[in-house]
Design goal:
This protein is globular. The two termini are 27 Å apart. By secondary structure, it is an alpha/beta fold. Helices cover 39% and strands 20% of the residues. The strands form four sheets. The protein has a five-stranded mixed β-sheet. The chain has twelve helices and 16 strands. Helix 9 packs across helix 10 and helix 10 packs across helix 11.
Length: 407
């Protein structure tokens, strides 16, 4: 969206113009100053006053001049993505993942801490240790702060995890605890909203008018974005799809145990049959993966490897889960009619099962709906870190002067 900040106090005007210029270069760079001025509807002199200090700070860089047509050579501006870094921290049920992420959302370094569910006081020292390792990796490059994500119900305004059943957390002030442990600015949100944020800024949903992100892991969450704004909801609870009703998917010889209960006691709901934990528990009960602990270790990877090697039991379990996710996609499409649905997490453990998700959604939505509207995440192999870091990067691009004063 083109921004035309024209009024307000000088400091407010500078903030708005700086943010608009930086976002325009992120989206369209390399771009000459004249092109940037036209893009923002500002005079070229104003643009030079805005971008000069950002170039001096190293966040923007000038590329070799373009010449042609006999006119004055044009000097394109582009982002230097390595000039500033961010830490993305994802707190899952069995591991904490952390990455050092540049200004274009690319993960530069990556560490994990394998563990079980833990109280915040026991878990946070390990998370802080990962942050310290990544700060050392930064080698003096300024680190803007931490974007932290976890599953369940999260209040981003206050940085509080209201309820994460997988971790046993209720009302945990995660943002405050991480800031205290690391000394860095922190932004916190749910895993699904973090993924949606990353997709609209750096991934597949950059040009989507409306997009939905559906994350499948040890929790199942969704998020909806209109343009680049991810909907949070009046109680910060938007995207809770865990209790969507499910039925036994047609075509599955093994089926699923729809009598399995969610932690809340409800049965026949998505959370009880389609999470990583639920699939592994079913694999253990059926003898497909004997001794598989519920949601622990590399169980899902082992189950996916069995499926890809031709094990019918493993393949049937994962395809049944994919059909359940396809049903959830159909519900979301019926409700929101998005341009794009992006998937991430365990449902993509076997790449071929994306087709199963699409088929199940299409069977419910009819021939007028294009299954190609469902796409896998484009965030790469370390999507958890990239997604988490996007929470902080979004805040930076919204108001860079809140993080640094470009002299």
């Amino acid at each position: 969206m083109t921004e035309h900040p024209r009024s307000g106090a000088p400091r407010d005007l500078r903030r708005a113009n700086t943010a608009a210029a930086l976002r325009a270069v992120l989206d369209e760079g390399p771009i000459p100053r004249a092109g940037l001025a036209a893009r923002l509807g500002l005079a070229q002199g104003t643009i030079s006053r805005i971008v000069g200090p950002i170039v001096a700070a190293g966040v923007l860089r000038e590329l070799p001049a373009l010449s042609g047509g006999g006119g004055r050579p044009r000097v394109p501006l582009d982002l230097d993505p390595a000039a500033r870094l961010t830490i993305g921290l994802h707190i899952g049920r069995q591991r904490t993942s952390a990455g050092l992420v540049d200004l274009r959302g690319t993960v530069q370094a990556w560490y994990t801490h394998e563990r079980g569910p833990a109280a915040p006081g026991d878990l946070l020292p390990g998370a802080a240790g990962l942050v310290r390792r990544l700060l050392a990796e930064a080698s003096g490059t300024p680190v803007l702060g931490i974007g932290a994500a976890t599953g369940g119900w999260v209040d981003p305004e206050h940085g509080t995890v209201i309820d994460n059943e997988a971790l046993g957390w209720r009302d945990v002030p995660l943002g405050t605890l991480l800031a205290r442990a690391t000394g860095l600015p922190v932004r916190v949100d749910s895993g699904a909203r973090a993924h949606a944020t990353a997709e609209v800024w750096f991934g597949r949903a950059r040009t989507a008018g409306c997009s939905v992100h559906l994350f499948t892991g040890n929790v199942i969450d969704a998020a909806v974005a209109i343009g680049r704004r991810v909907h949070v909801g009046a109680r910060s609870a938007a995207g809770n799809v865990a209790h969507l009703p499910v039925t036994a998917p047609p075509g599955s010889s093994a089926g699923d145990d729809l009598r399995a209960a969610c932690a809340c006691g409800r049965r026949g709901v998505l959370q009880a049959v389609a999470t990583d934990r639920a699939v592994l528990a079913s694999a253990a009960r059926r003898g497909v993966l004997p001794g598989a602990a519920e949601g622990t270790g590399d169980g899902l990877s082992r189950l996916a490897a069995l499926a890809e090697a031709g094990d019918e039991g493993a393949d049937d379990l994962l395809r049944a889960r994919a059909r359940h996710i396809g049903g959830a996609v159909a519900h979301l499409v019926d409700l929101l009619d998005p341009d794009l649905v992006v998937l991430s997490g365990g449902v993509l453990a076997v790449a071929a099962h994306l087709t199963e998700v699409r088929r199940a959604a299409a069977a419910r939505l009819g021939p007028s709906w294009d299954p190609a509207h469902v796409q896998p995440t484009a965030l790469g192999p370390h999507s958890l870190a990239a997604a988490s870091a996007a929470l902080l990067l979004r805040a930076y691009y919204d108001d860079p002067l809140a993080f640094e004063d470009f002299g």
